[in-house]
Amino acid sequence: MSHIFDALQRSVIEQTGVEHPDMVSVAAQVFEGATPKEGPVASVDFPSIEVAVPASSRLVFLSDPQSLAAEKFRFLGVRMRQLRQSRPLKTVLVTSTIAEEGKSVVSANLAGVLARRKKHRVLLIEGDLRRPVMAERFGLGRLDGLSEWLQQDATEGGNIYRLEGADFWLMPAGRPPGNTLELLQSRKLSALMHQLPQWFDWIIIDSPPLLPLADTSVWARFTDGALLVVREGKTEKEPLKRGLEILKKSDLLGVVFNGSSDGNHHNYYRRYAAREVQL
């Protein structure tokens, strides 16, 4: 995994001119803090729908809550709540450099563990309109979602569903449109993203990959920070470097290492001081 962190460090050096001795510390230091105080959120009723999670979905917060992976997601949720003490943080972008690094799995599991805190209203938005997967992961079939809502005349937030069993809300992508970037740049999406924080404590956006499209840069305008998902055996140095150049350093909350083949992480912890979130 050293090539991943070499790329992380090299990117920061090129952007800032400052060499960091431990890039993992840079990526993880924002996770430190105390449990925040959170205010009330306006209550809005959305239709409920039962989930039927397939065994292949990898939604471990539901299917295998006692597993190591589920525990790591709970740890990530704790760190995100702690981070709120030091900076405004409600809307979080989850992305990756390329496809199939696990950003959708991370987004859904993070939403699930954040929702476990009593009275927290968590919304998961499927922002990848080109390759929607969330409805299938939750066994919901095809649902109208963000794509349909952006093309309708309605002005209030809609096509949001409360997932019974998962205890959070989902706005799926819906049917892939032919004019994705045009829809994402609409004033209607901007108005929606200013309205949703009044209704939810957390908003997790499952974004498209950073490369090669511009969709993620549109979503980044509406978020308070980003988690970058990298995958062992999948993420390569050059795409990762380009992805980090796209993300503003101030927006990067941390790096989530997905798909580790070492369940105990002994070598990793010795080298990197156990500072990165691992899944």
Q: What shape does the CA trace take?
A: globular
Q: What is the class in the CATH system?
A: Alpha Beta
**Radius of gyration over all CA atoms, rounded:** 18 Å
Main sheet record:
9 strands, mixed
Question: How is the secondary structure organized here?
Answer:
Layout: H1 2-16, H2 23-28, E1 48-50, H3 60-63, H4 68-83, E2 91-96, H5 103-115, E3 122-126, H6 134-137, H7 146-150, E4 161-164, E5 168-171, H8 180-184, H9 187-195, E6 202-206, H10 215-220, E7 225-231, H11 237-246, E8 252-258, H12 266-272, E9 277-278
Parallel strand pairs: 1-4, 2-6, 2-7, 3-5, 3-6, 7-8, 8-9
Antiparallel strand pairs: 4-5
Helix pairs in contact: 1-11, 4-5
Features:
alpha/beta, disordered C terminus, 279 residues, 9-stranded mixed sheet, Rossmann fold, single chain, 36% helix, 12 helices
Describe the structure in your own words.
With 279 residues, the protein is an alpha/beta fold. The protein has one domain (27-34, 46-278): P-loop containing nucleotide triphosphate hydrolases (Rossmann fold), CATH 3.40.50.300. It contains twelve helices and nine strands. The protein has a nine-stranded mixed β-sheet with strand order 1-4-5-3-6-2-7-8-9. Helix 12 (266-272) links the parallel strand 8 and strand 9.
